[in-house]
Amino acid sequence: IEMGDRDILKYVWDGKIPLCITLSEDDSLSIGTSEKFYVMIPRMSYLPLLYDKVRKHFQKFLSKDFQNEEIWMEFNGLPLKWHYPVGLLYDLLGESILPWNITAHVSKFPEKEIFHCPNKDTLENNVMSSIKEADTLKHRASVINSLLKQDYNQLWSGFLNDRFEQFWSVNRRLMETSSEEMYFKHIPIRIYNFNKPGYLQPLVRPVDDNDHVLTFGDLLNKVIMKSVPDTGPELIKCLIHGVQPPHDTPLQWMSEHLSFVDNFLHITILQQ
After folding, report:
1. Distances from the Cα of 53 to the Cαs of 47, 49, 56, 125, in angstroms?
2. Autophagy protein ATG5 UblA domain: which residues (predicted)?
3. pLDDT score of 80
């Protein structure tokens, strides 16, 4: 079945991951394991948007000392970066196992490894800051500076409430080009390596100096392979939304259709 551009946007939007969340034994009043919390979360979403539900589910297992402490999540001993989209975290760490088993904590916050996220406003500020950075790369911030407060509210509310049409009625303006400018200035992109901390954020243009359209294969050869110098292309797997993009996919098209809510392409490099 041939998918149209709008179908692809909706397909990416609808992608979900099943989570199985267990309360850390350090924080639980019960002997042994408290009951697990199962939930489907959009790949585009962020862990802090689950915190209220997680707290409510495990409330009866928490001692009074921990009732109001900040929640943080961990997988195999590694604190999960809440400012990374869930789909990115899963592609990077989940090892293709479903449901993804992660652990919730309400004590011993790992100050040196992750930032605090005391409320949803912190998450909103973080995502909006990334959207502004992305538009600076794409349009020299001309679109984001033209948005009104109500546009921001509509964008964020559409995302929070899983309203595709509402979100895209604003987000499409951030993804548009004009007759004078057929391409973005640069492609907002971050590349994550399975065995390196942080990410690479190369300055990538959608076309070369001769206006030749650049593809994912060009990005792979010119940028990604240089970040894993001792590895051949056949030994790595590059994922976005859990899928390996074909090498002939134009970067401009990828940016318009496969970006996350923060308007960045988040690409994971894994060892085969």
Report:
1. 11, 8, 5, 21
2. 12-106
3. 97
Q: What is the mean pLDDT of each run of 10 residues along the chain (272 residues)?
A: 80 98 84 82 98 92 77 96 98 93 95 94 97 97 95 98 97 90 96 89 96 96 85 86 97 98 97 82
**Which CATH number goes with the domain that contains 92?**
3.10.20.620
Q: Is the full-model pTM beyond 0.85?
A: yes
How high is the pLDDT of residue 1?
A: 44
Give the strand order in the sheet containing 265-271: 189-193, 265-271, 236-239
Among 105, 139, 159, which residue terminates a domain? 105
What was the pLDDT predicted at 3?
A: 65
Same domain, yes or no: 156 and 93: no
Helices (H) and strands (E) in the chain, counts: 9, 8
Beta bridge partners of 74: 79, 103
- Residue whose entry in the numeric block shows the structure tokens 């990416």: 12
Domain that holds residue 148: 121-271
Q: How many domains does the chain have?
A: 2
Domain termination site, one of 81, 105, 129 = 105
221 forms beta bridges with: none
Same domain, 188 and 241: yes
Q: How far apart are CA 164 and CA 67, in angstroms?
A: 34
Cβ contacts of 160-167, under 8 Å, gap ≥ 24: 160/49, 162/42, 164/9, 164/10, 164/13, 167/13, 167/261
Together in a domain, 218 and 157: yes
Query: Could you tell me if 212 and 246 lie in one domain?
Result: yes
| 85 and 29 share one domain | yes
